[in-house]
Amino acid sequence: MRVGTLFKRTPTNEIATPMTLVQDYAAIFADAKEVHAQAIERLEHGDVRDAAEKAWCATKRSTDALILARTGEEPATTAITSNELDALTRRDPTVKTLVGRYYSRISQLHGACFYNAICNSETERRIRETANYIRDAERLASA
User: Fold this and answer.
1) What is the pTM (predicted TM-score) of this model?
2) Looking at residue 68, which CATH number applies to its domain?
3) Residues with Cβ < 8 Å from 85, sequence gap 6 or more?
4) Structurally, how many domains does the chain consist of?
5) Given a cut of 90, is residue 69 above it in pLDDT?
6) Do residues 81 and 60 touch, judged by C-beta distance below 8 A?
7) Which of 1-5, 33-37, 47-51, 55-59 has the least mean pLDDT?
């Protein structure tokens, strides 16, 4: 586990309160778990599209936390998250276990289901199994 000091930036790019790297990525994992819990709640209320988007968000947040833990920097955009996940995989092949699941969620949960209302029989499974993705990313963050 890497420990360092980060200086969070405000929306106007001013340096704000310093946080340790471990506190920061742990907070992002906690956020991912909370968003996933909201996804399950929306799924149980029949709102599959909102559940899919929340599950995608939880996937993205946990991937950001992993990247922050490994590199010391939190990705600012989804494109950067995707590129950094690919780069992590080149440096550490154990991270590859996340790659297919990450891209499946961005495509199927975020793109197809949420934006295009094309939800299929695998959507609910992907939403529910996002908990496994978060767990695996968290394990890899502390490796």
Assistant:
1) 0.84
2) 1.20.120.330
3) 63, 66, 67, 95, 98, 99, 102
4) 1
5) yes
6) yes
7) 1-5
